[in-house]
Amino acid sequence: MTTTLTDKEFEQFQSLIYQQVGIKLDSPKRNLLVSRLSKRLRDLKLASFQAYYDCVSRKGGEEELTRLLDLISTNKTDFYREPVHFDFLRDQVLPEVRGTKTLRVWSSASSSGEEPYTIAMTLCDALSDISRWDIKILASDISTRVLAKAASGLYEEERVSQLPKDLVRRHFLCGKGPQAGKYKVRPDVAKLVAFRRINLMDPTFPIRSALDVIFCRNVMIYFDRPTQAKLVEKFFRYLRQGGYLFIGHSESLQWIEHQFTYLRPTIYQKPF
Ligand SMILES: C[S@@+](CC[C@H](N)C(=O)[O-])C[C@H]1O[C@@H](n2cnc3c(N)ncnc32)[C@H](O)[C@@H]1O
User: Fold this and answer.
1) How much distance in Å is there from the Cα of 23 to the middle of ligand 1?
2) What is the pLDDT of residues 80-134, one digit of tens each?
3) 28 — pLDDT class (breaks 50, 70, 90)
4) Least CB-packed of 136, 159, 193, 211 within 10 Å?
5) Which of 27-36, 119-128, 221-230 shows the lowest per-residue confidence on average (mean pLDDT)?
């Protein structure tokens, strides 16, 4: 039996999701909401979307709200996705911080971990003296489901099958026995990355030292312009002078007011 989502219920979910994560679900996403929530309604033995809405929006409903956000988030990602940023990190950023051997990077919508681990692999490959460096990669996302996957560092073969074989050998342990077909990020790479749940809508972030680079790729596209502008303004505060903001290939800061210097498509710098 399928449950119907009324216009009123859709609007309620739209405004709750917008308020919580800044994502504006437009009408074409209505079917997606229905398909993703229907199973959850059945599991909880709820008769209507209204009942589910009441459950996530009431006091004490935070856990189910997290579940809802998990269900509606789009987590598509890949190792070495949009490689221009990893090349820039290696060729431009590393020489700048070589003197202090200290690097702070934030992968701010890290999904299942491919992006922050790619950052770590890039650094391991580029720095022969990495053991003498102080490197911290903070990786965060709103979704606890993808964060748990990311923290496990364990990936199916198809996630790494497009990568060069020698790179896979260098940075992954190949599963044996019951783990055959699985690939685990090697400890020397994994130890550079720390995962935590951060909502980009929060007014402040739990970050104390000034950042060299922020990756915020392929998430701003889901936010409206005022939300993007607020987020970019917060990023500006958390970067050091001369620090960089990387955004996704289909995103741009062109339509919002900001204080960054445009360097090239998807790469912005906080002025000195
Ligand atoms: C399409 S993935 C992008 C992953 C990666 N940055 C990349 O480009 O490959 C977008 C991620 O943003 C996360 N996200 C959506 N809204 C968020 C918010 N308000 N705060 C933090 N993360 C959010 C989603 O959970 C999802 O994992």
Assistant:
1) 11
2) 999 999 999 999 999 999 999 999 999 999 999 999 999 999 999 999 999 999 9
3) confident
4) 136
5) 27-36
Spell out the CATH class of 7-72: mainly alpha
In the residue annotation, 141 being an active-site residue is answered as yes
Atom of ligand 1 nearest to the CA of 114: 9
- Sheet with 239-247, strands from edge to edge, namely 193-197, 134-141, 102-107, 211-216, 239-247, 267-269, 261-264
Domain boundaries, the chain: 7-72, 84-154+185-269
Q: Is 202 in the active site?
A: no
Looking at domain 84-154+185-269, its CATH architecture is 3-Layer(aba) Sandwich (3.40)
Query: Which residue is associated with the tokens 């491919």?
Result: 114
Amino acid at 42: R
Q: Which residues line ligand 1 (CB under 6 A)?
A: 21-23, 73-77, 81, 109, 111, 115, 141-143, 146, 199-201, 217-219, 248
Q: Taking the complete model, does pTM exceed 0.85, yes or no?
A: yes
Angle 49-57/62-72 helices, nearest 10 degrees?
Answer: 120
What distance in angstroms lies between residue 73's CA and the mean position of ligand 1's atoms? 7
